[in-house]
Write a structure and sequence with these properties.
28 helices; 44% helix; Maltooligosyl trehalose synthase, domain 2; 29 strands; TIM Barrel; eight-stranded parallel β-sheet; alpha/beta; 15% strand; six-stranded antiparallel β-sheet
Length: 831
Amino acid sequence: MTVPTATYRIQFRNGMTFDRAIELIPYLQRLGISHLYASPIFTATRDSTHGYDVTDANEIDPALGGREGFDRLSAALQQAHLGLILDIVPNHMAASLENTWWQDVIEQGEHSRYACYFDIDWSRRLTLPFLGDDFDRVLQNNELSIKPHPQTGRPALAYYDSFYPLTPTSWENRVDEVLAITDHAAIAELHQQQPWQLINWRDARRDLSYRRFFEITGLVGIRVEDEDVFNASHALILELVHHGAVSGLRVDHIDGLADPQGYLQRLRKAAGPDCYITVEKILAEGEQIPAEWPISGTTGYEFIAALSHALIDDTQIDALHLAYEAATEERNNLSAGLRAARELMVDRNFAGEFARLLALATDIAGEEQRNFGEAELHVALREMLIAFPVYRTYGRHAGMTLAGEELLQQVLEEVKFSASPVALSFLQAILLGALSERSEHDAAEFRSRFQQLTGPLMAKSVEDTLFFRNHVLLAINEVGAEPLPHPFSLQHFHQEMQTRLQRQPDGISSTSTHDTKRGEDARARLYTLSEAPALWAEHVTRWRDLHQLQITPLRDGIAPEPAVEWMLYQALAGAWPTTLQPQDAAGLAALQERFVPFVEKALREAKLRTDWADSNEHYEKAVLDYTRHLLSPHNQAFLVDFHQALQPFLTAGLINSLTQTVIKLTAPGVPDIYQGSEALDFSLVDPDNRREPDFATLQQQLSATNAVNFNQQMDWLNGTLKQQIIARILHLRLDKPQLFRFGDYQPLYATGENAEHAIAYARQDSSDTLLVVVPRLLLDSQDWAGAVIQLPESLAHRRYRNLLSGEMLSLNEQLSLENMPYYAPLVLIAS
């Protein structure tokens, strides 16, 4: 297997095609990349912006250049000795009429050859939740009609530009008669004859008859656990792997599958031992990927969480919590907030999925002749789902794994006083497979669906609800982060890196992705708020006072409320471009164009006073007007103050940025450079983080000079310095892949004055030695003079070359930081 030394993620679509990617290959070579890491490239819905809504898994999207364009890209990559990693989507496809498999299921119902491809409950009609209102109202408004299908000419039920094919038994031998129907009652009767029914999109939460991706009804789950479905949906993927065009696969949302282990074993066997495979998987604190999975690792969200331990000031984080509570005049009880978010998901957003599980459990109770009813099971199942601490367990058809059994026992212990012990014990027996043979099939289905539900519940309650409600420190509201307060420590960071080396040395290390809540440099800057909570709170108080006249009283309270104001100023601090001046009207307008949609999304994801399904227009308008005023060029008093107050955080954030970059490039794991983040990435949540970077400028910057100049201010501000450091270290990785893949990770600790400001470690194998020292916590004390790092014998009495400056150093028993600039990372390679 060829393991990448570094990957570069490119988001195809939105103008990025295969031919445009070919033009970037020389730049990727100069940067030191070994593998291009592509977002999904298979045919997706028309105008898809991301490619995860696949309509044909066996066709390369013509919008990107089709198979011919892909072959050109593949040939160019091979000529440049670069590999290609593809992002594949085995969990779902688009529930779209553009999807021929799905359209056939709509037309033929349960008799379609593709009916078993999708995870559909065929005990009732297939629900299609794409109406803007209830069926009867839509019909009365003359929005439904019978028309010939544009492609086939056969009768279809037309709703605006969508044509839902009618099942042949409802029109055969009377085509003209059916096409002539205009009477509402007759249309309704014809609708009743279909194996599907159109419903209001708002009813999907409780009435959907197919498994969806999280809450997205436009994405339907597919059953890759079935060998025929796997083969049909992976034919082109495996062809590209076997022909050598693709050297690696990134598996999207592995936890959505019925049997992740079985899928990965089948994929590994089909792809062969040389294919590099990683999975998108959120690991909770202390959780590891199952050892049985034949993969190289995850896509690296846990790496971001580990970095926070190195860059957050744990001695002052509690003061930031207190400052937030003082500003909001409310106690910030995160445990209660987490439970409230999970309750909302179980009771409302995933009500249909919960109801299906409950019905299964009730049926099994009847089969097992257990003497309790649905009400007891309802409470027990609800409490178990709310208490689940990780994304899922990995039980299979025969029962639960030992790790899964231990986790279930932990959950049951937590909820034992909240539900009937008998009902909890029964649910445990279902999940463990400890029932009679007659219930084996239903128990296996329950186990599978339970495990497929806990992940979406966790993601939507934490990442997409709680993290948009709690604003203490936005930098730690990130994918893969722990939702509840916990200690941050440099020692824990080192432990995580040692574990990473042991458990997944070939896993991807990410700092920005298409799914992160904010760009890596925004996060690096916001970490510094933990170093000066009192100062930050003082700034927020002053800015709120400046904007008192922009507060709008509404019937349900003022808008924005204090917590949202705190969020606005902090999010703005993270997104503010390094060179933006308060008087730059065009720059302010460009930032506002990105920032206002982010605020709207943040408000709706919080689900407190507005929501995606039930928006509060008056509230949203008041908050967005407040937001627009913040960035108005006429609001100079605030803008000048904000810009001036931001400067120390901006400077410390840029130093943090280099620190996390150097760590990513030298610690265990395969570093991924998300498109554009090799310079500076202050992006907001998607779709902002999926914008195409200015590749022309990036190429020009890298071509201009190979020197790493820490004394050139503009190189800091425009990202050139970061880009040059990345190129320098990535080429070292290309030269010494074994050092970075297998080299030991040895934590080093500074002593003496300012020792807390240094992060140090060594990487060492039988041939090479790398010594890394990077700064931390430098907002107030921008100095690490006086700090000394004692070197063990294996590192001492050697000459080192500073990779970034070229300077040679002779080190004996210690490395003194006395004369080292605090802002310049040290990357020393033994000569």
